[in-house]
Design brief:
Elements lengths: L1 E2 L4 E3 L2 E2 L8 E7 L3 E8 L7 E5 L3 E3 L8 E2 L2 E3 L8 E9 L5 E9 L1 E2 L8 H38 L30
Parallel strand pairs: 1-12
Antiparallel strand pairs: 2-9, 3-8, 4-5, 4-10, 5-6, 7-9, 10-11
């Protein structure tokens, strides 16, 4: 989105796995009108202008880290609204061609959106989630306290195996041995 009578940046970068040589790039307006045309010899050289619209300025650079072929459209008018396509052709990649498209809208004035309703909804949802987490935490603590309280009230049950431990010097009694049933 651009404000009428302002300058707008139309960004475009490209990548290549094998480098480039004699790369050609073109910017089009609504797929037919050429607004900028340039060539780049290699990574060490800056783009050379072949042709351009007088209101278009090249602001990119290909000698740095990014292969940037962005342009600035000066003094935007309502008639400039539409589709802008950055087209790149790299002969080193068997003439592979790549496109990137930007849709530009031109407005008379920028209107600040009122986000009050959104903020209220986000606040309510966040509060409800917070209350749910708090409820779950309180529930877990209460259950933990109840379990600990019940564990303290349990009677200790002792079971005996019926073995006589008196021979080993341990206190205990010998369980009575029952005779096997007669058949």
């Amino acid at each position: 989105m651009a404000l009428n009578n302002s300058d707008v940046l139309l960004p475009c970068t490209f990548t290549t796995c094998i480098g480039f040589q004699d790369l050609v790039f073109t910017w089009y307006f609504n797929s037919t009108e050429m607004i900028y045309h340039g060539k780049i010899k290699n990574k060490a050289s800056e783009p050379v202008l072949v042709g351009r619209n007088p209101r278009v300025e090249f602001v990119g650079s290909t000698t740095g880290k990014d292969n940037n072929i962005s342009i600035v459209l000066k003094n935007v008018e309502f008639s400039d609204a539409g589709k802008y396509t950055c087209h790149v052709k790299n002969p080193k990649e068997k003439h592979a061609q790549h496109n990137a498209t930007i849709f530009l809208t031109v407005v008379q004035k920028m209107v600040e959106a009122d986000n009050t309703v959104t903020l209220i909804i986000v606040g309510v949802v966040g509060g409800l989630i917070g209350l749910l987490i708090l409820f779950m935490l309180i529930k877990r603590v209460v259950l933990f306290i109840i379990k600990k309280t019940q564990d303290g009230k349990k009677e200790c049950l002792v079971s005996s195996s019926g073995n006589d431990n008196t021979e080993n010097g341990l206190a205990g009694s010998k369980a009575e041995q029952k005779a096997p049933p007669k058949a």
